[in-house]
Design goal:
This protein is of the alpha/beta class. Helix content is about 40%, strand content about 15%. It has 11 helices and 12 strands. The strands form 3 sheets. An 8-stranded parallel β-sheet has the order 3-4-5-8-9-10-11-12. Helix 4 links the parallel strand 8 and strand 9. Helix 1 packs across helix 2, helix 4 packs across helix 5 and helix 7 crosses helix 8. The chain starts with a strand and ends with a helix. The relative contact order is 0.14.
């Protein structure tokens, strides 16, 4: 694994990270023992940029990551998030960006992770009722207190990012970006390059769809969040299968897997881009990590652009309520 710089900090993180959300919730059955083994295997492979959030589980994912890294804290770079409030029973309670909540959420995450400082602390979603200056100001105080090392935003709009960066350097912006979610190319990527912000691409494999694993709705486990995602439903599902078929064809010709092709394409989009595919199993992790060995020539990138142009996916990336909470 090679590394890429995080923002303008001089700190470097693995070029491919590990999204840990699915280890605790949303994507079908979970297995803590296999998840911890997967995190340990990731560290062995140099995939040391671990991504979690307080809401995953809820709360259990941070504890899981904390157990996994307890004896190897110095080898990992841990990112977590706050802002999406949930109750102990999993109910969603809204978005909170108030300074008091920032401090409260950080202390709780530190305890669950079992660490003295969070390497990268994101606001998970922008609170429209709290000026971004107030939220980031409170986050900056956490840096001064030694509880957080670097700040990030997730799913923020360009103007929000600019306002936030005037308060304190923003090291990373985390937003969905993949072969079927190319909206960041319009405004977000240019702003990140201008301000020296690393773009952390979540769901780089289209929530698993771009790997070719799903050929029919029955392939998605009962209770899996993706059953409620517009891109996995009805006619959208069938239309998106056609895109995956083309990606699979190209991957066969390239002698790699569709997942490796999708990740290699993202890595080729700029030195400031770090994808964080989620993996619950060691075999998938190893497959994804090997994407760094797939190189794409200029002509190949053009062909991929023709296969998966901007707006190619059928359906929005979230249901209506979820779409209202992004890019703001």
């Amino acid at each position: 694994m090679y590394n890429r710089q995080l923002g303008t900090s001089g700190v470097r993180v693995s070029a491919v990270g590990l999204g840990c959300m699915g280890m605790s919730e949303f994507y079908g059955p979970t297995d803590d023992a296999e998840s911890i083994a997967t995190i340990h295997r990731a560290i062995d492979l140099g995939v040391t940029f671990l991504d979690t959030a307080d809401m995953y589980g809820p709360f259990t994912n941070e504890r899981l990551v904390g157990r996994a890294i307890a004896k190897c804290r110095d080898r990992v770079f841990v990112a977590t998030k706050f802002g999406n409030m949930r109750g102990e029973k999993g109910e969603f309670l809204g978005i909170n960006g108030t300074p008091a909540y920032v401090r409260q959420a950080c202390d709780a995450s530190l305890t669950r992770l079992g660490v003295e400082a969070i390497d990268l602390y994101y606001q998970h979603r922008v609170d429209p009722n709290v000026p971004i200056e107030d939220t980031v100001g409170a986050m900056a105080q956490l840096v001064t207190a030694g509880k957080v090392r670097h700040l990030g935003l997730s799913e923020a709009a360009p103007q929000t990012i600019r306002r936030a960066a005037k308060v304190y350097p923003i090291a990373a912006l985390q937003t969905e970006y993949s072969l079927w979610s190319r909206d960041p190319e319009d405004e977000l990527l240019p702003v990140c390059r201008e301000l020296g912000i690393t773009f952390v691409a979540y769901s780089p494999l289209g929530r698993g769809f771009l790997t070719g694993r799903f050929k029919r709705l029955a392939d998605i486990p009962d209770g899996d969040y993706r059953r409620n995602n517009p891109r996995f439903q009805g006619e959208n599902f069938e239309k998106n299968l056609a895109l995956v078929a083309e990606i699979e064809r190209f991957a066969r010709e390239k002698r790699c897997t569709p997942a490796q092709l999708a990740l290699a394409w993202l890595l080729a989009q700029g030195e400031n881009i770090v994808p964080i595919p989620g993996s619950k199993h060691r075999s998938r992790l190893e497959e994804n990590a090997a994407a760094i060995h797939v190189t794409l020539a200029r002509e190949e990138l053009k062909e991929i652009d023709a296969i998966a142009p901007h707006g190619v996916a059928a359906g929005t990336r979230y249901p209506e309520a979820g779409m209202r909470a992004v890019h703001r």
